Amino acid sequence: MSRGVALMGKWDEAKRKALGMNEPAEQPPSLFDEPISIPEHNARTSDPETSKRAARNVVPRASNQHGKLLYVYDAAYPAGLIDEEAGTRSGLSANRRCCYWKRCNELRTAGYIERTGGIRRGSADDQTVSRITEKGRDHARHMREL
User: Fold this and answer.
1) Which residues are 132's β-sheet partners?
2) Would you say the C-alpha torsion 108, 109, 110, 116 has a positive or negative sign?
3) What is the per-residue pLDDT for 56?
4) Number of domains observed in the structure of the chain
5) Which domain does 14 fall in, by range?
6) What is the pLDDT of residues 35-91, one digit of tens each?
7) pLDDT at residue 18, rounded to an integer
8) How far apart are CA 84 and CA 135, in angstroms?
9) CATH number of the domain residue 76 falls in
10) Number of C-alpha atoms within 13 angstroms, CB side, residue 134?
11) What is the pLDDT of residues 78-123, one digit of tens each?
12) Burial profile 107-141: b = 16 or more Cβ within 10 angstroms, e = fewer
């Protein structure tokens, strides 16, 4: 089992524990225990109320997705990844309802990853390469130490 898969499994265990489900107390904290500071929700003020509710409801899933993406960007340092590669390596692209590219953009906006100026071919077209920043690496290191 790869380290990434193992860490993602530990995140699921930590999530179940936080929800009050019975889990062994001796489980170590995972890379994804501490959420990344991302805006509370991404609905525009002009969006209908249903969109605003959906944006509020996506926040817990978004934190999980941010953590998984940050982990794969950290593992790919310094070469970086295109968003499509990050979605594939994190396993998020397997979920059709997951908008991993939006989570990547949120990580860029928050300063956890940055564009390198490089371009790589994705499945359909050229895409920009991003890599984890020092802020992102510090956050990933901090999460591992918890």
Assistant:
1) 113
2) positive
3) 67
4) 1
5) 3-145
6) 555 555 567 788 898 887 776 665 444 468 888 899 999 999 999 999 999 999 999
7) 59
8) 22
9) 1.10.10
10) 0
11) 999 999 999 999 999 998 888 999 999 999 999 999 999 999 999 9
12) bbebebbbeeeeeeeeeeeebebbbbbeebbebbe
120, two tokens:
């790589």
Whole-angstrom Cα distance, residue 32 to residue 41?
19
Q: Assign residue 111 a region (left: φ > 0; alpha: ψ between -120 and 50; beta: otherwise).
A: left
- pTM, two decimals, is 0.62
Q: Alpha carbon of 88 to those of 3, 19, 77, 97: distances in Å?
A: 16, 28, 16, 14
